[in-house]
Queue: 3 jobs
Job 1
Amino acid sequence: MAGKTVDRWLSDPTRVPHPETRQVVAEALGVNAEVLWPKAIRSAVKVGPEREIVSAYPYRNACPTSVWARLIDGAASSITFAGYTNYFIWQEHPRLAERLKEKASSGCSVRFLIGDPDSDITRRREEIEGVPLTVGTRIRITLDALKRLGDVPGIEARFSDDHIALSVFTFDDEMLVTPHLSSLLGHESPMLHLRRLGDDGLYDRFAGHVAALWAEGRPVDAP
C-alpha cells in the first residue's frame, strides 16, 4: 500500500503529501524534499530569510546520517567542520579519512576549526559538562585523526576558543548549524539545515562568523 502511495505522489505532480510526510520520505531516500516536490517547497516558503532553512531538528542527532553523508560526499569546492571538538564526525561516518583525502585530491578545501584542548575555556566547559569523555579528550581524538591523515594538501586545521557555543558545518552552499544550549552536549542541542540562496541571508551570517574565526585561528601543530 505504501509503495502504491509513493508511486502516485511521484507520477502525479498535483498530488503532494503533507509537510511532515514529505520530510520523512525525503530522509528515508537520503535527498532533500524539494528535489521530490520542488513546487510544494517553493509555495510553502516564498519570501524572507526563512526560505534558506531546509530543515530544523530539535536535536542534532535527529538529523539522519544520510543527510550528513550526502553533504560530505556531494561537496565539490569546500567543507568546513567548525565544531568545538568535531569528535562525533569521526565516530558516525565510516571511512571519513579516506573520503576527505579524496575530496582534497579533487580540489575541495577541507578545514577543521577546533577548540584548544589545553585552554581555560575548554577546562571550564569540562567542569560544566561533567562527563567522563571530556571536551579535551574529544578534541584530542580529532587531533589524532588529523595526524593519521598525514600532510594532505587541501586539508587544514586551526584552533579557536570563540565557537564553543556554536557549531557550524559547511558543504559548498549548504550548512548545518548547532547553537549549544546551556550545559547540554552537542547532540542534545537543536540544529538547522540551511542552503544559501542570496547575499546576507542566514547562511552568509553564519559563514561570515566562521570565516572571521578561521582568519584569527591559531595553527594546529602536529602532536
Note: The mean pLDDT is 86.
Job 2
Amino acid sequence: MKQRILLILLLVLGSHAFAQREDKHLVALLRPYLEKHHGVAGIYVHHLKKNTYAAINADTLFPTASTIKMTIMAGIFDKIARGELQYNQLLTYKDSLLYEGEDILGSFKDGEQIMLSKVMMLMLTMSDNTASLWLQSLAGGGQQINTWLEAHGFVNTRVNSRTPGREANRAQLGWGQTTPREMARLMEMIYKGEVVSPAASERMYRNLTRNFWDGEGLLEIPKNIRTASKNGAVDESRSEVIMVNAPHGDYVYSIYTKNNKDESWDKDKNEAWQLMRQVARIIWHYYEKRDKTTPDPGVGQF
C-alpha cells in the first residue's frame, strides 16, 4: 500500500515538474510595448527547454494574412501522406490561377510546368499568393484544411477565403483566422515532427527557414542563429511566427496585431513592424543574457 502511495506521489510530482509555467517577468517586460500599440496586439512565447510561457491576448482572434499559408502547407503534406499528391510532381500552370499582384508564379505563361515543391517554395519563401491559392485548392480547399486543423486540436485557426460557409469570417478577418497561441503551437508541432509525420515535418521546417521577408523580428536575431518563420501583412494587420534555435534552448513566439491605426508600408516607420522588432529584441536578450553584442547601426539598411 505504501509503495502504491509513493508511486502516485512520484507521478503527481513528475507531472507538475513538466507542466508549463508562466514566466511573469517576461510578461511584464513585453506588456508595455503591446499596450501602447495603436490597435490590438497579442503574443504567445514558449521556451521549449524551460517549458515556460508568456501570454498576452494569446487567445484573441486575429487575421492571419499570409501566416495561414502554414496550414495550407500542412494540408498539402497530408495529401502527400495519403498518396494523392507527390512532393516533386509536375504541375501545369493555367492563366485562370492568376491572383493579381507582384507574384512570381503569376508571370508564368499558360501551359508552363513547375514542380509542386517549387510552388511550395514560392508560397513560403516569397509569400506568393498565386502559388498559395493553387496549393490551397490542391490540398482539397479550405474545408479539408479546416477539417485537419479541427482534428488536431486547433479550435480557432481556420481558412476563410474561398471556403463555403465562412463568408462572414472572411469579411471580418480575411483569408484566415488564428490566435497567437495556436499559430505558435503549429510551428512548434512542425519543429517537433508532429505534423503528418516526422519526415514531412522535417521538410516543412526546412522550408520555413528560407524567408525572404526577414526585415522585422528576424532582423533582431543574430545572423548565425537558425530560425524558421512566416509573416503576414495587410493594411490594418501585421503578424509573424518565429521559431529560434537559440544556444540556451529553442523558443517559439507568435505576435499578431489588428485594427492598426498605422496602415503605412514604410519598413522602418510602420508602428506594428517596429513593435515586432522591439519584441524580438526583448525576447532574444531575455533568454540569451550572455549575448552582449551591440547590433551594427547599418543592419537593416538593405
Note: Residues 271-287 form the longest helix (17 residues).
Job 3
Amino acid sequence: MQVFGLLGNPVEHSLSPPMHEAAYEALGLDARYVTFEPAPDAAADAVESAATLGIAGLNVTIPFKQDVLDAVDPDDVARRVGAVNTIDFSGATPKGYNTDVAGVERALTHHDVVIEGRDAVVVGAGGAGRGAAFALADAGASVHIANRTVERAESLAADVPGATAGGLDTLDRVAEADLLVNATSVGMEPDEDETPVPAEHLHPGLAVLDAVYSPIETRLLREAASAGATTVDGAWMLLFQGVEAFEQWTGRDAPVDAMNEALRAQLD
C-alpha cells in the first residue's frame, strides 16, 4: 500500500483527504491519504521522517510551504514562487513542486478561458497571489498585481516576468481587463457580504476566478455573473492543484470527476 498525506498545522478541516481517497477508489489503487500536524518549527524534521517512513508523497499547507523549501529539491516553478505545496519521495532526494500554479491555469482552461495574450489583474500579493501571478504570466498573460500594501505588490511584480503593480486604487484596470483573479480572503465567511472589486469594474467578456471557496458563490462571483462575466469558483482551483499532485505522484491521469464530486460533497 502506498501512503500519501498532508503536512500542515492545523489540518483537521482539510478537504484534501476525501478528494484524494475518492481518486484512489475510482482507480482501484491500493493507497491511503493521511494527515500530519507537526509543531510549527518542525517542518524539515517532518519531511525527513516522512522519507524514513516510506511515505510516497505529501501535500504541504500553511504554515509550512516556505519552510520545506530547504528540505527538498524544488523544481523551477516552486523555486520561483518561493513555496512548495507538493513533495514527491520517489527519487533519491525529495522533490518539491508548487501545484497551486497549475491549479489556477487548469481551473481557467477547464472553463474554456483563454489566458495567452490576455490582460489580467490579480488582487493580492500573498501566497495565493504569487501562485496566480506566475500561472498567468507563464501562460502568456500580461499581469497587473493590485494589493493593499503597494510595496508587497511591487516586490512580487519584480519576480514575475512583465508584471506591473499598484495599490487597490488601480483596480479600475479591471474595467479593461480580460481576466481577474481574487487571491485574497475578502468575501470569505463570515464576511461573505464583502467584495475585493467594485461591481462597476466588472463587465461582459471578463473571466473571474475567486480563490475563496467558502462560500462557493461569493459576492464577487454573483456580481460578475450579473455583469455578464464568466465565473470560476475557488473549489476548481483547489481541485486542480490536487489533481496535479495526484498525477505527479502516480503518473496516471486523475479521475477529475470523482475528485470534484467528493470535494463538493464536503463543501456542501
Note: The longest helix spans residues 234-250.
